[in-house]
Amino acid sequence: MFRRLSPAILFLALFLAMGPLGATSAQGKTTMTEELKTSLIPIVQYIRQYYMYEISPDTLMRAGLRGIFHALDPSSEFNISGTDDDWDGNFGTFERVARTIDDKAFYAVGPDTLIRYSIHGMMSVLDPDTVFMEKLNLDNFHINTRGEYGGLGFRIQVVWPDSAIAVWSLLHKETPAARAGVKSGDLILAIDDSTTKEMGASDAASLMRGKAGTDVVLTLDRPGLEAPIDIKVTREVVHINSVPYHVLFADSTGYIKLQGFQHKSSQEVRQALAELVDQGMKRLIFDLRGNGGGYLAEAVQIADLFLPKDQLVVYTAGRAFSDTTKYFTQEEPMFGEGPLMVLVDGGSASASEIVSGAVQDWDRGLVLGTPTVGKGSVQQTVNIGDRAELKLTMAAYFIPSGRSIDKRMRKDSTLVAMAKQEFHTQHLGRIVHGAGGITPDIDMARRRSSSLYRQLEGWRSRNSRFFRFSRQYPLDHPDIGPDFIAGPETLQEFRTFVDADEFEYTSDLEIRLDQLRGELEEETEETHSDMESSLAHVAGGIEEIEESHWLDNDELITWKLTYDIREKAFGIVQAFAYDVTVNPQILRAREILANEAEYLSWFQRSEIGEPSEQIASTGDTDVVEVKGVALEESQTEKEQR
Question: Are 39 and 388 within 8 A, CB to CB?
Answer without folding.
Answer: yes
